[in-house]
Amino acid sequence: MSVRFSLLYVTVCLFVSQTAVAQSVNVAVTVDATTTGYRVNEDFVGFSMEQYTLSTGYWGRLGSFWTGGTNGNARLKNLLANISNHSVIRLGGFTADDRMVWQNAPRGTSTNVRATYSDDTDKFFTFLAEIGWKGIYTINLPINTPANAVSEATYIMNKYSAQLHSLSLGNEPYLYAGVFRSTGYTPDSCMIKDYLPMYDAIKAANPAIPISGLDCGARKYYGAMNQRWNDVYTNAINNSGSSRPLAALNVHSYGLGNNSNTLSRDAAADTLLNFNNAPLTFKASLLPYVTQLAQAKNTPLRFSETSSAATGTADTTNVSHTYVSALWALQYLYTLAASGVNGVNFHSSGSSVYSAIDWGPSASISAYKIAPIYYGILAFVDGAKNQRLLTVTPSGSTTSPRASYFATSSDDGKTLNITLINKDVANTISTTVTIPDVTISKASSQTLRPTTSRYDYAANTYYANAQVAANGTFTKGTPTPVSLTGSAGFAVSLAPMTATVVTVETSSQRMYTLKTGNWTDPAVWSGNRVPNSSDVLELKHTVTIPANSTVYGLRVVYATGIKLQYGQNAQLKLSL
């Protein structure tokens, strides 16, 4: 049998005091490659765009973001292909509600950019079909009627069901009070007067139309008010007893919220990197609450609108569009994946400073400019896409240094992933990584880095010694060899404010289970034979070792919730 190689990446996020004397900080990490957790699917990372992109090629200018300017949209297609072959673009934002009402007719000679015509929608879904992605499409809620929403929903479903992820009704309705509705607007009045009449009308026209929502979340803070909106919504619409199904629970979150302008630049950067924006209480309140709510309601959870700061063009700290946001995005994505979130859409609001993909300079139409955060996303998908999270010990530390650690594995155990992030502005990190029961043959690395400082812009940001080309494509440079510390470990040094993705190759034969059954049945195993002492095995199903049997393997990797069953006097011998 041929020997196959497996790749391994681990993510270590390191934080060191900004005021400490520069030094080399030692960190030791152990990865458990025997138990897999949540999977980072192909559609985990996507993007969110303002609904206004349907009618404009730049703010206020008639055109279409999705067809591009004078050079077409080839650059945009390549930018998305770098991230995924099959993911999700969400259309929404404030412009979905304060304009963009459906007209149910071709645009013709109309120059009204504050309305959605059928051929505007055609351009978006045609674009999705060309790149193999799907769309979350927002229908105007506060200045619309159920009948008009039905017209829009059925038009999209009848023509573009293959490209439709779901429809979302309205955007952040908790902000309607005093804008579209009276100051006494509540979650209950929203559901009774606005949301449910529109939802029910669409489902009555075609029950198969998928609807997601409520697209609420946190900007200035997260607390009882935000939870109340999601509670009321999911009590009425859920997949655990309600007659109204939910395609996904959509929530919003921004790392700095609207609070970046109250902080100094360095304080904003530290707040972003440490996930400690007190008014938002992201890790303490928002994330655990929405993940538990989605599980209780038996619905997928998607952060359908998110980025570093919800400040539009007014981020006076100059943090959200600098290299700092790239390091933040890398850890943020791992944090969401480890919590069981199904997908993340980075919001790009046209010309807002936090946009991962922008329209570009005001003199250009649809130039598809990128921000540094895009390079952080590239590093994440390189180390985590189509992988399962592994357990790392320790999981993190708050002092000396402040750190957090992540690791991933492919479904069949052939590929494991390692990423190391040093978020200190002065100290170098000397990291040793050990993976028990894994024999390493060689290791190499790629690095996410700025050119001069953590406040570098995209022009001075690199991943894998490469930058995005003019046509939007991205090709990694030659990886750097990494020193091994033995058969099951390696050592790597991280410069301040850099992230390194390490690829480790091992020389183990791999098999995985195809179905539930006895260990000794060859049909249970992907190799169509009974495993031997040189095989690394992944149990995706419940397997039983028959009574009075002794079976062999090199090591065993268990999928989440799977256990090995032993008959009387049965034994498993591992050749570790």
UniProtKB/TrEMBL annotation:
The keyword Signal applies. InterPro entries: GH (IPR017853), GH79_Enzymes (IPR052974), Glyco_hydro_b (IPR013780). Transmembrane segments: none annotated. Residues 1-22 form the signal peptide. SUPFAM superfamilies: (Trans)glycosidases. It comes from the Bacteria. The keyword Transmembrane does not apply. Keywords: Signal. This is Beta-glucuronidase C-terminal domain-containing protein. It comes from Spirosoma agri.
